[in-house]
Amino acid sequence: MTKVGILGGGQLGRMLLESAAKFKAETYVLENQENCPAYPFCDHFTLGDIRDYDTVYSFGKGLDCITIEIEQVCVEALEKLEEEGITVIPKPSVLKMISNKISQKEFYQQHSIPTPDFFITYSREELVKLIDFFPAVHKVGLGGYDGKGVELLYDINDIHKGFDAPAVLEKMTEIKHEIAVQVAVDQAKNIAVFPPVEMVFDPRLNLLDFQICPARLSPSLQKEAIEIATNLVNAFQSPGLFAVELFVDQSAKIWVNETAPRVHNSGHHSIEAIATSQFEMLWQILLKEPLGPTHVKKSSIMVNIIGAPNYSGIAKLEGADSITDQDTFIHWYGKETTKPGRKMGHVTRLNIKPENANETAHFLKNSIRCLSDTKENKDSLV
């Protein structure tokens, strides 16, 4: 049986492990807390820091294959493991490039991938010289995730929000649609592409609010998005599952925003709505099994269950019992505590009508909420 290690034990690791029952794999997880979402589902758990060289190297050296569920890991240890014959997916070289938004943007530029104009900044005071480039989006090079590490800068009064660290200053674009395309590449370089999905973001939290599949785009725009995503992933020259986030501007031009080299929030609907889920697809890549089909079985909407404003403490799911139809599927991530803006689960509804997507999302968001026994007096988003 293949010994597969996962760096990270969050909700992505949990859902990956939930789908492991269909495959012949012995699973190992490394995470820095035992009460993480993935803990109850793995065969072997190691408590340790996924960013520490010795810990990651020791964890991986007895495995056949290792993957990630979060980018913030010790890539140097993965490079050493790869040198010693351990299969690392995605390749450490690609993970190192993608995990830094600066090198990621430079990669797009070098490979003629359409992406908004940008400058590299190394301190906040440099922004004063680039005021003519505003409005722009400032993205910290290392450490940003789930909307953290991103600031919108409209004029000189916003400079104080910028990062006093290496970062990308990207030209702000008038976005009409935000979309994502997942591309799977197996170890023999075979490719499978998931249908594009449309993403709607929470403007306060800057993270995914809900997602629609298929995307509400013309066939020609969907085809173009798939071509751009496939060309980008081919340039990586690495096996793995890659979520390419793109947007369509007001003139119908498609730009690449960024790439996640792992299973991704934009693909959670695939568990019920796609012929092969993103999690099954990653197992097929890791275990050298044939890639499954990716056609849409049923149209869907996926809504994130986010920790409600003003509630922090022991998590409590409210409203799930009121949802009784067979087309709605609630996924709870098993996190013990909630706080405002924290991802706590998601709900997928099938057989939706695209024209009613916003209304359906609003209904689900208001029907299923994550609260706690303690309510705070002030509204905090993080």
What features would you describe in this structure?
Strands 10, 11, 12, 13, 14, 15, 16, 18 and 20 form a 9-stranded antiparallel beta sheet that branches. A 5-stranded parallel beta sheet has the order 3-2-1-4-5, with helices on one face. By secondary structure, it is of the alpha+beta class. The chain has 3 domains: 2-88, Rossmann fold; 117-171, ATP-grasp fold, A domain (Dna Ligase, domain 1, 2-Layer Sandwich), CATH 3.30.1490; 175-372, ATP-grasp fold, B domain (D-amino Acid Aminotransferase, Chain A, domain 1, 2-Layer Sandwich), CATH 3.30.470. It is globular, with a radius of gyration of 20 Å. Helix content is 22%, strand content 31%. Helix 2 runs parallel beside helix 3. The protein has helices at 11-18, 53-60, 75-83, 92-99, 101-110, 219-236, 270-273, 278-286, 357-367, and strands at 2-7, 25-31, 44-47, 65-68, 87-88, 118-121, 136-140, 150-153, 167-171, 175-185, 191-193, 197-202, 207-213, 240-249, 254-260, 300-306, 313-318, 328-332, 337-338, 343-350, 369-372.
Short description:
With about 375 residues, the protein is of the alpha+beta class.
